[in-house]
Specification:
heterodimer; A: mainly alpha; MetI-like fold; about 75% helix; B: mainly alpha
């Protein structure tokens, strides 16, 4: 068998699999977002039914409805949820970057033989249960939690801080959970930088701060970009963190989608929310895809 | 402050932030008191309580079976995808495959979960064990593909060309060169797929049906009711298992690394 033949066969199975289990489902989400909600099982009016033949299918087309999208525009709950997600994801991404950058830099500047172990240690939490890492912050942040306990024992505060069940707790949860996603691309970008560039800057009289601002930082921008997208995109649709750490007034779109689906059993609404979220994330997804492609060509 | 101190201090703060909360959960799983935040002495009573919790044990069994099955499928499919993407030159559907591999890595889980569910409903499949396996295999194969692909593009392609020049047919070059070189990444991919499946709560909640409750689903419903020492104990066991697997894999990777340095 020729190399080309092997390649085609290797590509075929995963491509077919992903078309069936990934691409088609998205078309279904789009389809159900324009269906009518109904009290049935499944809880929406089917759009096409092959058993009805061509005439039946054409009749069904007349039932296409944008009701779910109209609801998104008219009901403040959705607008506030999208804005809430955008705000919290943006704040959390910025904070994650601020924490991860010095951390990744310290790993990249550590002695060469220690770097692999340090990177592994920094990324290892990603392998442990997400749910447990979020849960740990309930233990820490609750009114009668460990942080309040410790601060009060030290006499630093007189009464417990109210962080748990607020937007601040959600931000802490996102920063903590997604930190490894930010550290890894930053480290990759910082580690491959040529040290002689910094030496040249220093030789030419640049202060360490100026060298950082004019050499290190600009060269690491692809890593900053990749890390920020890796945190921002999933954080936008996050459900577990706002549900466990946020308050009842914490509106995030992932949670609203979840409630539409599981509590209200309004599948067309949930599907429309997902399609709009996808459309909002599309620029970020394309930017991420471009970065991946550029990285591969290098 | 001198740079010599700044680096290690940043590292210390970073690792304390990453590991502190996890270690506290583990510490408090040995707390005698039922009040989670008051330390009342060392005890293993919560671990004993776990063994009596039949629902929890059932969910562990479901999660492990789902994880092994879906990770096996994901490893085969993901490795094939990586092999196809690592080849030089274009082929029909390359950008489609590439886009479909990278998108699930970052897409919010609620969207993926909803999409998978709607597919299974449209197909009229009963939801349960197998729908979770299929959904997990689909999103974890993308992670396997990325890990294996990174390894395939980083090794010297002239090795394969040399094998072919020496008269080895392509399938033989594949078996004797490509496969051994990518083996550590394939193992890493399997482990990653396994842990991602074991960990997933959102997607499983969408596609699961009666009788198929995974461990994260069980933990989640307990966490919603409040923090209990029992959850700390389950978490500790889970973290210890992952820690051991990671340490084992790191040791394996070190040995492979030495071997490939000797040959390379």
């Amino acid at each position: 068998m020729s190399g080309g033949g092997m390649r085609r066969i290797a590509a075929l199975a995963p491509t077919v699999w992903l078309v069936v289990f990934f691409l088609v489902p998205f078309l279904l989400v789009a389809k159900i977002s324009v269906s009518t909600a109904a009290l049935a099982q499944p809880p929406y009016t089917p759009l096409f039914d092959l058993s009805e033949g061509v005439a039946g299918a054409l009749a069904r087309l007349g039932e296409l409805t944008l009701a779910a999208y109209r609801a998104i525009l008219e009901d403040d709950l959705y607008l506030l949820s999208y804005l809430g997600s955008l705000r919290l994801a943006a704040i959390a991404t910025a904070l994650t970057l601020l924490i991860a950058y010095p951390f990744a830099l310290a790993i990249a500047r550590a002695p060469r033989n220690r770097r692999p172990a340090l990177v592994m240690l920094a990324v290892a939490p990603f392998w442990t249960s997400f749910l447990i890492r979020v849960y740990a912050w309930i233990l820490l942040l609750k009114e009668e939690g460990l942080i309040n306990h410790a601060l009060m024992a030290l006499g630093l505060i007189g009464e417990p801080l109210h962080v748990f069940a607020t937007d601040a707790a959600v931000v802490v949860g996102v920063v903590y959970s997604y930190l490894p996603f930010m550290v890894l691309p930053l480290y990759a970008a910082l580690e491959q930088q040529d040290a002689s560039l910094r030496e040249a800057a220093a030789d030419l009289g640049a202060t360490p701060w100026r060298t950082f601002r004019r050499v290190t930082l600009p060269l690491s921008l692809p890593g900053v970009m990749a890390g920020s997208l890796l945190v921002f995109i999933p954080a936008m649709g996050e459900f577990v963190i706002p549900d466990l750490l946020g308050g009842s007034e914490t509106l995030m779109i992932g949670r609203t989608l979840w409630n539409d689906f599981f509590s209200n059993r309004d599948w067309p609404a949930a599907s429309a929310v997902a399609i709009v979220l996808l459309a909002l994330l599309l620029p970020a997804l394309i930017a991420y895809e471009r970065l991946q492609l550029r990285g591969r060509e290098r | 402050m001198s740079r010599r101190v700044l680096g290690p201090m940043t590292l210390a703060f970073g690792f304390a932030f990453l590991y502190g909360p996890i270690l506290l959960v583990m510490l408090y799983s040995f707390n005698e008191s039922k009040l989670v935040t008051v330390w009342a002495g060392f005890s293993t009573r919560w671990y004993a309580a776990l063994l009596q919790n039949q629902q929890l044990l059932d969910s562990v069994r479901v999660s492990l079976t789902v994880a092994v099955t879906s990770a096996t499928l994901a490893t085969i499919l993901g490795t094939l995808a990586a092999l196809a993407l690592a080849e030089r030159g274009r082929f029909l559907g390359r950008s489609l495959l590439s886009a479909m591999i990278y998108a699930p890595l970052v897409l919010p889980e609620v969207i993926l979960g909803l999409a998978f569910l709607l597919l299974f409903v449209a197909l009229g499949v009963d939801r349960g064990f197998w729908t979770i396996v299929l959904a997990h295999a689909t999103f974890t194969m993308c992670f396997v593909a990325v890990v294996v692909h990174a390894r395939l593009v980083s090794f010297d392609r002239s090795l394969i060309e040399a094998a072919v020049d020496l008269g080895a047919p392509p399938w033989r070059a594949f078996l004797r060169v490509t496969l051994p070189i990518s083996a550590p990444a394939v193992v890493a991919g399997f482990l990653l797929a396994f842990t991602l499946s074991l960990d997933d709560f959102v997607i499983a909640s969408f596609v699961s049906g009666p009788g198929a409750t995974t461990l994260p689903m069980r933990i989640y419903s307990q966490v919603r009711l409040g923090v209990t020492p029992e959850i700390n104990a389950v978490s500790t066991l889970l973290l210890a298992a992952v820690g051991l697997a990671l340490a084992g894999f790191a040791a394996l990777g070190a040995r492979f690394g030495e071997a490939s340095e000797r040959t390379g």
